[in-house]
Amino acid sequence: MTSNFLLRNAGVVFRNRPDAKTLQKTAMSLFILLLSCFTAYAQSVVTGTVTDKENTTLIGVTVSVEGKSVRTLTDANGKYAINVPADGKKLTFSYVGMQTLTLDIEGKKILNAVMGSANELTEVTVVGYGSVKKNDLTGAVATLSAKDFNKGPLIAPDQLLQGKVAGVQMINNSGQPGGATTVRIRGNAAVTGTGQPLYVVDGVALTSNSARPSASPSSVGGVKATPGGGLGSAPGGNPLNFINPSDIASMEILKDASATAIYGSRAAYGVVLITTKRGASGATKLDVNASTGVSNLMNQLEVLDGNQYRSALNKYGLTAGDYGGNVDAMKAITRTAYNQNYSVGISGGNDASTYRASFGYQDQQGIIRKTDLKKYTAAFNGNFKFLDSKKLGMDVSLISSQYNENIAPITNDAGFTGSLISQALSWNPTRPLRNTDGSLFIENGRIINPLAMSEAYSDKSKVSSILGSVSPYYKITPWLEYRMLVSLNYSSGVRRNSTRSFINIEGVQAKPADNFLGGYASYSNSELLTQQFTNTLTFNKEIATKLNLNAVVGYEYTNYINKGTNMNASGFGDIPVDYTDALQATPPNNRRMSSFSDPTTELQSYFARAIFNYAGKYLLTATIRADGSTRFGSDNKYGYFPSFSAAWNIKNEEFLAGTEWLDQLKIRAGYGRTGNQEFPSGSSQKRFAFGYDSGGPTLTGVNNENKKLKWQADEQINIGADFGFLKSRLTGSIDFFRKTTTDLLFPQIPFYPSAAGASVTWVNLPGKIINKGVELTLNGSIIDRTDFSWSLGGNATFLDNKVKDIAGIINTGTLNGQGLSDVTLEVIQSGLPLFAMVTRRYEGLDAGGFSKYTDDGYTLYYVGNPNPSVILGISTDFRYKKLSLGLNFNGSFGQDIYNNTANSVLPITNLGTRNVAAPLLNSAIQESLANPISASSRYIEKGNYLKLANATLNYNVGNLGKTIKGLNVYVNGQNLFVITKYTGFDPEVNVDKSINGVPSAGIEYVPYPTARTFNFGVNFSL
User: Fold this and answer.
1) Minimal CA–CA distance to 763: which of 687, 829, 708, 828?
2) Residue 20: what are its φ and ψ, rounded to 5°?
3) Is the dihedral of CA 955, 960, 966, 968 positive or negative?
């Protein structure tokens, strides 16, 4: 057959004129030809929404066609649309902190995705030296992911969990940027040390020490850097400051002994596992976070202004003390503070390797003049797989940081001279801070101008840290894996402290008549080094029909090194340089130096855990750890820490299989034993400190040998239940626990009179500390609609604390200030709660304005308990379309606070020379100016409070063009208000008032005040 036409150069040339039928056939042939060509390059559009397992939409998820270069990101509502080539079969969803998910398209036009947390690993929870399915957990473990954290420019990771977890109390000890915090899990049981939990970052256990040198006197384990004049000891810093909270993906809190026993001798106070963010396979992604904010003093104390002070002088008939002014000294030393926070994360990878690198900068000014913290961080996480089989792999982690602090002269135990806050509060409000010529007013005597103190004092610290680990692993079989981890954690700190010669502090102020030029300075440095070597073998396989075994065995070796030096001098005069740069410009007899190197602590450990799971219904976990430590006596080098727990997944039973309203019901029970080795290195050995006096070198005893010194032990019983109803619209858990602490580590001080050179002996005290309580957690999705949702969550912990079977009384909780020399408030005594407040019982004022006490003050009574009976956390989130609001409250009830500030800084006896507390003038009976300052229950106040600690208003703008993805704009507030009857700065306070290493609780003494902060921020992806 001869064709009637030819195709020539994309045109049609007819040989003969075709008829209509031929034209029809020709047109149909051309249409089919063009359609087949188009189909070869056809694309279909697939749309959908990406959420997490709690139905929260995810912004900025990378959606890509598997094997193609086509990708897009989800918008502010978690929605996406992607053009899929005809030969595209699967979509891959990747997001930092979440599991990578791959779904078949199968001709679908709408494909919704639900992503699980990368730390859940198909609904698993990270536990010590491994991970287990959430449904296989038999212990009390709480998990927080990034979306659960407190928001805003927080400095340290422990601030992320405040109010979020039942059984966990987190207290900011003061408002100082980067200041220390107190974290207690299931009550207080520490008679020495801090009582803080063990923190583990990506498998590396941290110490509780900070490399920031101390500014307090110490003979061993610290450096002397405090001048005379009663300024006192400066509060410590937070050892977690080196971590950027923006780099954290999740935190697991292990609360009961069945969960913590795998960490043995370091787990008595609980364990917090921190997992940092990882990369995900897919195209390179850049995440940017930026915020700026402003802070002011949250609460003012009620003191007299100038006019009120004059009125008080008249009321009391005083003719002296009015200098004619009206000065607010607190305002003079405080300011509006600003903060800046920037964080950038770069991530990506493929099936063989993923990575994430991040960089952060934080500049947070303090509300006290001349105070701030600047922090620089960089981190890297890499996950690499080798060989065609991908059985060989390596995880690499690196965190590096440097933070610089300017620290105010605010101390824990200042005497009459006071530190900056007490100087400002007690300053006579009628007296100018400056002379008429603008110079600082300074008088001879012991009353110090707070503005002059601020100008005279300089305290700068710099801490540099690096935490690195390499963890190669090999999958011997699909169910057997060997892993090794080698890590190094190194920190060094430098601190430069100086006080100029013009300030009227004894030992600092120049005295030309005595040939003393004045001025004081110290230079200190310290080093901390921890090395950890861990080897584990993990087994996870079904060993019989319906019976699965998840087991791990391991060996670990860790050593700790801590050393430091200090140089200090006095007598500089008014030289025009920083004193710390010219220590040599002082008389040789005025220079002092000291150094220390703690004995290296070594910890050798063997551990094993087995989790049996039968049919997903019946679970049994058994753990054992053996720890050998050089800290303990030769007769008790090793301690053994077992635990057992079981659970019953009742929901998985056949008789509940058809119960649609019930999603989860599991009952748990466990018992375990953990230990504590938080006390000075070398305490079981005979130790001496080197020195020198006019007769030559000296040796001074530090502690005596005790071969029988052994582990402090904590035994804990836990019974709990987890539940979920109505398609998980309501979920929660309840736990009952009892924790008993025995063999209490304690530094026994020799009785006096004692032989010269007598020193401390560390012993195990007989007796017990019992903490028992109930934890309740509830989370509800009250409204869950397309355009509007409301969720409400809360946790409550009910606690009871008691000391039993301890012989005698241990005193702690020193009180300071005028009239309170050698006064203690708290005791560790059998039958009372830990740190019970025992003092005079105040009965009011008599007719003459003098204090009345029960039994005339000769008998001391138990009058206060610093331990809360209830800890509360409440979180609620509202969402309307693109706008969302999150509120986080925390509270504490049942505890007492001793107001040492009111007791000794602002008493009525100040009137005429210094300021007083304003409420003292409202008393029905006029208090006598001669009323002696004395510790009593008068200054014990109820510490109940509920605080709106964190609130965030967020607007999801979405994508801007093709470059900016998932733009998010927010306003955040911190410490917005507190409901309390406490009259101090903030009921959330815990000033360190320890004595000889025995801690205290619930005492407030002129701390760095809390700030109220407002922040504005944005985050987006590129």
Assistant:
1) 708
2) -65, -40
3) negative
CA dihedral for 52, 649, 536, 392, sign (positive or negative): negative
Residue 411 tokens read as 């101390």
Q: Would you state the pLDDT for residue 227?
A: 42
Helix then strand count (H, E) for the chain reads 7, 54
H/E stretch holding 974 reads strand 964-980
CB 668 within 8 A of CB 620: no
Query: Which helix (H) or strand (E) covers residue 455, if one does?
Result: helix 450-456
* pLDDT tens column, 334-391: 999 999 999 999 999 888 899 999 999 999 999 999 999 999 999 999 999 998 888 9
Phi, psi (rounded to 5 degrees) for 198: -80, 130
For residue range 118-162, list pLDDT tens digits in order. 544 445 677 878 887 777 788 889 988 888 888 888 899 999 999
Predicted confidence band of residue 42 (pLDDT cuts 50, 70, 90): low
What residues contact residue 446 under an 8 Å CB cut-off, 6+ apart? 416, 417, 504, 506
Q: Take residue 77 and report the two structure tokens written for it.
A: 């509502």
- Rounded to two decimals, the pTM is 0.86
The sign of the torsion formed by the CA atoms of 235, 239, 245, 251 equals negative
Q: Please check whether residue 167 is in contact with residue 241, taking contact to mean a CB–CB distance below 8 angstroms.
A: no
Interatomic CA distance for residues 152 and 961, integer angstroms? 27
Q: Residues 473-531: pLDDT tens digits?
A: 999 999 999 999 999 999 999 999 999 999 999 889 999 999 999 999 999 999 999 99
Whether the Cβ atoms of residue 78 and residue 112 lie closer than 8 Å to each other: no
Q: Would you list the DSSP string of 159-185? A: GGGTTTSTTEEEEE-SSSTTB-EEEEE
How many angstroms separate the CA atoms of 679 and 697, rounded?
28
- The bridge status of strand 823-829 relative to strand 809-815 is antiparallel
CA distance 1012 to 949: 9
Q: For residues 376 and 361, is the Cβ–Cβ distance under 8 A? A: yes
Helices (DSSP H) in 295-399: which residue ranges?
Answer: 306-315, 329-333
CA nearest to 810, candidates 789, 838, 791: 838
Q: Are 589 and 557 in contact (CB under 8 A)?
A: no
- The pair of three-digit structure tokens given for residue 276, joined into one six-digit string: 């940092």
424's enclosing H/E stretch is helix 420-425
Q: Average pLDDT, stretch 270-284?
A: 90
Residue in 457, 506, 501, 450 with CA at minimum distance from that of residue 914: 450
Which of 196-205, 353-362, 416-425, 680-689 has the least mean pLDDT? 680-689
What's the rounded Cα separation, in Å, for the pair 993 and 823?
Answer: 11
Phi-psi category of 682—alpha, beta or left, where left has phi over 0 and alpha has psi -120 to 50?
A: left
**Residues whose CB falls within 8 Å of the CB of residue 31, separated by 6 or more in sequence, listed in order:** none
Sheet hosting strand 836-839, strand order edge to edge = 809-815, 823-829, 836-839, 861-864
In degrees, rounded to 5, the angle at the alpha carbon of residue 132 between the alpha carbons of residues 128 and 137 is 95
Q: What distance in Å separates the CA atoms of residue 526 and residue 463, rounded to the nearest whole number?
A: 9
Rounded Cα gap, residues 571 and 300, in angstroms: 38
Q: What is the dihedral of CA 928, 930, 931, 933, to 10 degrees?
A: 140
> How does pLDDT run across 439-459, given as a tens digit for each residue?
999 988 889 999 999 999 999
Cis peptide before 753 (omega within 30 of 0): yes
Question: Sign of torsion, CA 829 831 834 840?
Answer: negative
User: Of 965, 905, 961, which Cα lies nearest the Cα of 933?
Assistant: 905
- The structure tokens listed for 630 are 């050089």
User: Between the CA of residue 993 and those of 232, 440, 692, 803, 902, what are the distances in Å?
Assistant: 11, 33, 31, 20, 16
